[in-house]
Design goal:
Number of strands: 12
Strand order of the largest sheet: 6-7-8-3-9-10
Distance between the termini: 40 Å
Bound molecules: adenosine-5'-diphosphate, magnesium ion
Shape: globular
Helix content: 25-40%
Length: 252
Amino acid sequence: MIDIQAVTKRYGPQTVVNGVTLTLPTGGVTAIVGPNGAGKSTLLSVMSRLMKADAGRVLVDGMDVAATPGDVLARRISVLRQDNALAARLTVADLVAFGRYPHSKGRLTAADREPIERAVGFLGLEAYRDRFLDELSGGQRQRAFVAMVLAQDTDAILLDEPLNNLDMRHAVAMMQIMRRAADDLGKTVVVVLHDINFAASYCDRIVAMREGAVVRDGTPDEIVTPEALRAIYDMEMQVVRIDERPVCVFWR
Ligand SMILES: Nc1ncnc2c1ncn2[C@@H]1O[C@H](COP(=O)(O)OP(=O)(O)O)[C@@H](O)[C@H]1O
Ligand SMILES: [Mg+2]
């Protein structure tokens, strides 16, 4: 379980996350949505200890992330950042093996092989295993980074805009991977998404942020309504139902 308690983060005079309190129980897929600059990436960074909160705290399975040794935390929670600094001459296999670092401490054993192979297979990267990252398309590279995160084999997985660069088929496959991680492996998946229809189709819960605060939190049926979408995005959107699901139409 991830327990976010009154977390505030400032950059200079600007408060970008403002007293966010949120509980993410174990299991399920939660989408975080909201306009650019809402504070989504900053909140994920604080949750995963990449950044320190100015106030409040985050507990992962009862452990305060700011006070937990990095290697202990890295076996509980993994994160795909929005901007992955690209290590130039690294192969896909090397990158995915990096995900095992908290377990292997740099000495890969036979026990690390299985999660690495599973992650490579999950993301359909078998054919690219020995390619260097700078020899891949943006979408293939994005899948390699997600494979690295899956290989870390943590209970909680945070993904910041994992659908970036993916074509529709791979975007759907990525969401199905998240569903399987939650449904079959019992993982807690938290994913920042921009496509509200992907969020509604694949996620159990949608948390919407705006100007550093959580402005809506509920099921897809509760969030994908013209009223809630107006409150989140300041936009008029039509919602239709297809196969019992709310679908947002935003190209008028
Ligand atoms: N390192 C930084 N220094 C100063 N301001 C930042 C920094 N990173 C992000 N910000 C600002 O914080 C706000 C929230 O950013 P971010 O968390 O990346 O939002 P989101 O992921 O929702 O688009 C934005 O206004 C952004 O410009
Ligand atoms: Mg972001």
